[in-house]
Amino acid sequence: MTLMHDPGIDQPRMTFARERELRIGTYNLHGAVGIDGKFAPERIGDVLAEIDADIFALQEVPLGGASSPDVLALLQRMTGLDAVAGPTFDTPARRFGNAVLTRYPVRAVRTLDLSFKSREPRGALDADIDCNGELWRVVATHLGLASSERRAQVEQVLQSFDTPALPVILLGDLNEWFVYGRTLRRLVTHFRRATALRTFPTRFPLFALDRIWVHPGERLLRVDVHRTALSRVASDHYPLIAHISASVNG
């Protein structure tokens, strides 16, 4: 795992109007290849600038290697945010997987190996982030394509919450196509049911694959899809944005 830190951004950059909420986003980058087939990581950076979230969870991120670009490093430079990498595919030639960008200090980082049998390696990036003096546990993940795989992965993630309680944000591409799928029903046992908004595919969104779950649920104010001309072409997923109360009293 990699933690890149810009010493010039120790203090969160947030306007007064934003001090009462956290803006958290999840975005599957599709390897920074847009629906036009072009590899254009700068477009992803421009989409992130449009959103201006406090924390981003990113999936399908090229993380460098001898034969692979480091898209996360580029996005870190473009946004000025701190970056944490959570590769699920990690060889000298190519690193690829999950990542988090944050304007707040990262206090601890863990990775969960969610790989299932012989299927594509999967994982979760689990970070404790200090948001204006309150520690949040942010778990960024990208679940598998098979229903049995997703069920096992969700059980593994939920078991990791047995550690001392922090407020939790679980977010990412859950790959759950069915609104009443067993994966989502299991998550409702720990999280309040969250709004399901269609994010995939960007040409004609049909499926709510990208999700943000918050515990305690009353901290979640609303969830929006970031639909712009740029986000429509930059990836095959739209970004999903959650607005979260920055304090228990709102």
From TrEMBL:
Endonuclease/exonuclease/phosphatase domain mapped to chain residues: 25-237
GO biological process entries: GPI anchor biosynthetic process
Pfam families linked: Exo_endo_phos
InterPro entries in alphabetical order: Endo/exonu/phosph_ase_sf, Endo/exonuclease/phosphatase, GPI-anchor_lipid_remodeler
Name of the protein in question: Endonuclease/exonuclease/phosphatase family metal-dependent hydrolase
Record has Kinase as a keyword: no
Example GO molecular function: exonuclease activity
Source species of the chain: Paraburkholderia atlantica
Alphabetized SUPFAM superfamilies for the sequence: DNase I-like
UniProt xrefs under Gene3D superfamilies: Endonuclease/exonuclease/phosphatase
Annotated GO CC locations: membrane
UniProt keyword terms in alphabetical order: Endonuclease, Exonuclease, Hydrolase, Nuclease
